[in-house]
Design a protein that fits this description.
Two copies of one chain form a homodimer. An eleven-stranded mixed beta sheet of chain A has the order 3-2-1-4-11-10-5-6-9-7-8, with helices on both faces. The first copy, chain A, is globular, with a radius of gyration of 21 Å. In chain A, α4 packs parallel to α5 and α9 runs antiparallel to α10. Chain A folds into two domains: 119 residues, Isopropylmalate Dehydrogenase (3-Layer(aba) Sandwich); 183 residues, Isopropylmalate Dehydrogenase (3-Layer(aba) Sandwich). By secondary structure, chain A is an alpha/beta fold. Chain A has 13 helices and eleven strands. In chain A, β1, α1 and β2 form a beta-alpha-beta unit. Chains A and B meet through α8, α9 and α10 of A and α8, α9 and α10 of B.
Chain lengths: 349, 349
């Protein structure tokens, strides 16, 4: 395993680019000494930042791009006018075989639209989804879609179920991952017509999938199922609600400790385990969402993350490549392909 | 203020009824010595439970009802066949003026459907919503709808904005509460067509409302706005995700402390402030959601709560009555009534 893994980086994407991007890849390189980076963006800005990180001196090539995609750009507009942007060029490097994956903290919609256009989707997949892991009482649960598709029909949800199942099998090593559809009640009669339709098909199908049924918002962290399937609107709100709640909890804890001298003494003793809990629920640790369903590896980092968070997103891309995940997902999709096609035919009318 | 407040209780609703219901009202009575209870349900079950609670001996009347509405009953079916149920009878007691509010931990859909049928809605309100407070970095934020209406159009969202504004003004004492529409991005181009339509009307309107614009999932706990408006599907998933995340955090903390002797010693010193944080984020503390928009006070408790949680839901009902909240909401709605009607006309076509 001495071949280096080249990862393509959108140097200009996100709220704190390019500073935290360069800091993040330096941290990622510390963890994975075999990574090399192709970083795209404004050379005049990137060069001095890279020069500050000694560890990047022999593993980082800067490719100058004059343009950047802003966070508020419409995906359609980004595609039309962004061919010289750092985002476009960094995705193209994967398509061209120069890099094995692309990581960006930039505009989610533009990353998705450009990735679909340049990389194309896996055979049988209409809509790629954003998939990531959540910490749970029982370990980790995969959830998708976290924001790629605001409105979904039953067919989209079925595709997500199939992809999520493959993802959990490959990444979490679970032989028969259980799948749950996120709803506002576990009873069959609850929720929207789209959800009822999707559940009906998943239940009655010959798909070789462990369909658990409907799950609710608190089932995510309970770890009731291995894969939680939902539309991108609900998934995104749920993800951000969870992040916000974790931050609130840490903040309350910090404030409370500051307010008491005895607690401060106590915390000196308890610090190692408190730090352990903070680390375990740190949203930055879970930063890095896979765009699953693409014919290539694209990882989206949170736009507002710091260097530590961005390094974790690079780590997700690295893991995807190391575990040859996309090829395994492709094989899984091929294996159940005929059934999926049949299901989609049912779902589409 | 020596007049007793009578609260009507659905004695048979929820996962652990009637045990935790009776425990809960006993705890509520300890906090509010002026409450009296009318409790509806199976007398043979309720009588011995009430007899165990000395504090209830002179403030609790049991009314026997042979039927109960199960958690999986469809609202339409509950209305047709549930006229002798504890839920129906407990709502009727409010309509009849025997009680000032009803509290139930039972079937949410049935409680909403029956309440609408028996109490009717406030003038100008088409769809009542479920509204509750969330703890935030800045204090508390009201959020609605938390699950009454799975699918909402722009008109529904406008009604929620108007009601949420009144709720925050009266309950949180904020002169000009800020309103945010929950979305998957704060930019104008994000989200569904329904959200864009609702935002457009709220922005361009002459409604005397501080419309902040779109907010995201993590803005809820940040306290970015005083009122978060969303459809009942998203609101319910978000609420339950937040509850699940808070539980996960506490569980991780407990496990970590157990694993280290030093941490256990430290925790003895820090215990008071840790307990304070736990109490501040305890979902049971926030148990009790108001069905806002009804011509009467109906409070829904979590179905799976315990006595402590149910007592808090009774406390919410008590506060609503003490602050004469519904009359104030009615006045507010009347004040902005003509504008609302105009908006609804716009929204409905």
């Amino acid at each position: 395993m001495s071949t280096p893994t080249v990862i393509s980086i959108d140097g200009m994407g996100g709220d704190h680019a390019p500073e935290i991007i360069v800091r993040g890849i330096a941290m990622a390189r510390e963890r994975h000494p075999l990574i090399k980076f192709l970083i795209f963006g404004d050379e005049a800005l990137l060069k001095p930042l890279v020069a500050l990180e000694a560890i990047l001196s022999d593993c980082c090539e800067i490719r100058h791009c004059p343009d950047r995609i802003t966070g508020d750009a419409k995906p359609s507009q980004a595609i039309r006018t962004g061919r010289n942007s750092s985002l476009w060029k960094s995705i193209e490097a994967v398509k061209a075989g120069e890099a094995a994956a692309i990581v960006s903290a930039g505009n989610t919609g533009a990353l998705m639209a450009m990735s679909k256009l340049i990389m194309r989707t896996l055979p049988g997949i209409d809509r790629p989804a954003i998939c990531a892991l959540f910490p749970t009482m029982r370990g980790e649960t995969a959830m998708l879609d976290l924001g790629a598709n605001a409105q979904c029909d039953a067919r989209n949800l079925l595709e997500f179920a199939v992809m999520g199942e493959c993802f959990a099998r490959a990444l979490l090593g679970i032989e028969r991952p259980t799948i749950g559809l996120l709803n506002i009640g576990s009873e069959d009669l609850k929720g929207t017509d789209t959800l009822k339709e999707a559940a009906g098909i998943l239940k009655s199908s010959h798909l070789d999938i462990e369909f658990h049924g409907f799950v609710e918002g608190d089932d995510i962290t309970k770890g009731t199922v291995d894969v939680v399937v939902t539309d991108g609107f609900t998934g995104n709100v749920s993800l951000k609600t969870a992040e916000g709640t974790a931050k609130l909890f840490s903040q309350f804890l910090k404030n409370a400790i500051k307010s008491s001298f005895l607690a401060q003494i106590g915390m000196l003793l308890a610090k190692p385990v408190i730090m352990q809990v903070m680390a375990r629920t740190d949203p930055r640790k879970y930063n890095g969402a896979l765009f699953v369903g693409l014919n290539g590896v694209a990882v989206k980092s949170h736009g507002g993350t710091d260097g530590f968070g961005f390094a974790n997103a690079v780590g997700v891309a690295y893991d995807m490549i190391a575990r040859d995940l996309n090829r395994r997902i492709g094989q899984e999709l091929e294996r159940i392909g005929s059934t999926t096609a049949a299901l989609q035919a049912v779902a589409s009318k």
